[in-house]
Every structure is written in structure tokens, then in C-alpha cells.
Design a protein that fits this description.
mainly alpha; 11 helices
């Protein structure tokens, strides 16, 4: 999982770099457009050729990123794709066998659980003190499960997209609380409802190694949430721009804005 996430991050970075190069090439073409000297015209043709090549490279990276995202969507648990698989190994160090469920079973289980306990999950996500969290889970032990962790992950991304950064960080903390409890349960091969008190005892008694692992995972998780939110926003903006473009299309399918942007500089000056 860690290697998969690293590959995704590298692909996203490469795509952003490709987009930046295309943008720079477009600016150069625009600056040279309308040139009169032979040398400038030659530079313009070279700039257009370079832009075409960079656009081709950009599309190639976009395709690779999309393929990676499709593979990611096939992964069963949202919380797993945003949590480092290895963080518990140095602290909890055991990986028990897990009974597999079908995708349909997981989806139906998650949907039913959220419909019934959404209000309680949100309340847990907003708690700040260890003691308050422990008491709330003691009163509502049914919340100690994968479904709660998955919902909190989605909640974090939604909050970041809405630019509610402080709230996102708060809910992220509770997400990692739940994830650590679940990992502890796996290591002990017990129902997570029967061991969450052990997590709070350990985290509150200043076990430095455990606290460091918790804090490291929390910071990494928040960065991944920000990355996911950014991707979602960029996708939404791209879809919005495409919709606006479709509304503007004139005769022959031409976009007036694109036509205007490609006019030589001297013509633009006449119309200003």
C-alpha cells in the first residue's frame, strides 16, 4: 500500500510539472504571436511545436494518473488507502488473519451503519480530550469499527474541500484514534470493542514510542487528505470550465474565448 501511495504521489507531481510546462509554452506562443521579423516567426513556429509536444506529454501523464485512480477506487476501504499500512508494525507488530467480505457486502454494511449512526459518528469526530473520547466510546461501543473510521476519512476530505481546515484537523485526530484502536484489535486478535480502553491507557500514560507513531501518522494522514481534497477541487473546476465552454460554443463549435485568446496582439489592441 505504501508503494502504491508513493507511486500515486509521483504521478500527481509529474502531471503538475507537465501542466506548468504547457502553461509556460502557451505564454511564450502568445508573446511571439503577431511577430513580423523572420527570426521571430521562426521562434514562434518552434514555440508552437514545443507546446504541441508538451500537450502530448501532459495527456500521457493525465492518462497514467487516471489509471492509478481507477486502481485506487477498487481498493475496499477508504481508511486503508489514507493510512500507512506499516505504521503499526513497529508498535503493534502482529498481523492476524482477516475474514474477507465481498464489495457488495462491505458497501451495504457501511451504508446501513451510517444511516443509523451518522449523528453519533460526527459527535465523536468533534471530541478533543482523550477522556471524552473514551467515555463516548464506552457509552457507544458499536462505533468502534471500520465503518466509523471510513466515514471519518470522507468527512475529513469534505471539510478540507470546504476550506474548514481547523475542523478537518480535529476530525483527522479522531480518525487516527479509531484507526489505532482497530490496529490494536488486529494485533491482539480481539473484537475492537473489547480493547479500545487499552489504547487510551497507553496513549495517556506517555509511552513515547506510541505517541510518536500516533503523531507521525496523524501528520501524514492530514497531508494525504489535503492532497485528495486538492485533486477533487481541480477535477470539479475542470468539469465546471468544460460546462461553461459548452455554453459558449458558437457556430461551428467555436469557443469565443479561445478565438479571442488566439487573435494576434495587434488585433486585440484595436478592440480594446
Amino acid at each position: 500500500m505504501e508503494a502504491f501511495q508513493k507511486k500515486g504521489a509521483e504521478l500527481e507531481k509529474s502531471l503538475l510539472e507537465a501542466k506548468k510546462k504547457v502553461s509556460e509554452a502557451q505564454r511564450r506562443v502568445k508573446d511571439l504571436d503577431g511577430a513580423s521579423s523572420d527570426q521571430a516567426k521562426k521562434e514562434l513556429e518552434e514555440a508552437k511545436s514545443q507546446e504541441k509536444q508538451l500537450r502530448k506529454e501532459e495527456r500521457s501523464w493525465e492518462k497514467k494518473v487516471e489509471e492509478h485512480r481507477r486502481e485506487e477506487k477498487k481498493m475496499p476501504w477508504n481508511v486503508d488507502t489514507l493510512s500507512k499500512e506499516g505504521f503499526s508494525k513497529s508498535v503493534l507488530n502482529v498481523k492476524p488473519e482477516v475474514k474477507e467480505e465481498t464489495e457488495e457486502e462491505k458497501e451495504e454494511k457501511h451504508k446501513t451503519f451510517v444511516e443509523k449512526y451518522e449523528k453519533q459518528i460526527k459527535h465523536f469526530g468533534m471530541l478533543r480530550r482523550w477522556d471524552d473520547s473514551q467515555k463516548f466510546l464506552s457509552d457507544n461501543p458499536h462505533l468502534v469499527c471500520e465503518e466509523t473510521a471510513n466515514y471519518l476519512v470522507i468527512m475529513c476530505i469534505d471539510l478540507e474541500v470546504e476550506e474548514k481546515h481547523a475542523l478537518m484537523e480535529q476530525v483527522a485526530h479522531q480518525t487516527i484514534v479509531m484507526q489505532f484502536i482497530l490496529e490494536l484489535a488486529k494485533s491482539l486478535k480481539v473484537d475492537p470493542r473489547g480493547c479500545f480502553r487499552q489504547f487510551f491507557t497507553k496513549i495517556k500514560t506517555a509511552d513515547q514510542q506510541y505517541q510518536d507513531a500516533f503523531n507521525d501518522e496523524l501528520e501524514s494522514f492530514k497531508e494525504r487528505v489535503r492532497g485528495r481534497a486538492k485533486i477533487r477541487i481541480e477535477k470539479a473546476m475542470k468539469e465546471y470550465e468544460e460546462e461553461e465552454k459548452q455554453k459558449r460554443l458558437g457556430p461551428g463549435g467555436l469557443d469565443p474565448v479561445e478565438v479571442y485568446d488566439t487573435l494576434p496582439q495587434r488585433l486585440l489592441l484595436i478592440h480594446q
